[in-house]
Design the sequence.
């Protein structure tokens, strides 16, 4: 049986690793914290032990990934930086789409609409391949 203490410890470890992975840049640090908080709140009512064990494993793998991103400025760091950038642009897009007052050609609008779907697909594939829990 998994205990609440293990998830509280996981939350705190993710928080610290997330801060370090963005080199303590304030804006990105706040974005990472928001993503961690949302992920935990999404699964707050989860009671299935198998799902909780999988979430704990994914959380531990994510901590390792974030720690690697903080130590090396390689592909891991680029992924974390791009996650923060996409969150920034998505929040701006939610407030006001970039083409709200423009008349785009139909094929341009379709390309713009599927870009977010392609990003989410790539992120989902990275998560499944590495057993991570990135958002």
Sequence:
């Amino acid at each position: 049986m998994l205990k609440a203490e293990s998830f509280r410890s996981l939350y705190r470890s993710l928080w610290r690793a997330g801060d370090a992975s963005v080199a303590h840049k304030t804006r990105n640090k706040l974005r990472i914290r928001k993503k961690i908080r949302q992920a935990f709140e999404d699964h707050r009512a989860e009671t299935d032990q198998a799902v909780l064990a999988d979430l704990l494993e994914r959380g531990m793998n994510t901590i390792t990934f974030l720690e690697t991103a903080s130590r090396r400025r390689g592909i891991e760091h680029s992924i974390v930086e791009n996650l923060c950038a996409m969150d920034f642009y998505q929040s701006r897009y939610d407030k006001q789409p970039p083409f709200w007052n423009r008349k785009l050609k139909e094929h341009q609008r379709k390309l713009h609409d599927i870009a977010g779907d392609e990003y989410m697909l790539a992120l989902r594939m990275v998560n499944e391949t590495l057993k991570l829990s990135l958002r």
About this structure: The CA atoms of residues 34 and 62 lie 15 Å apart. Residues 106-130 form the longest helix (25 residues). The chain has one domain: 4-130.
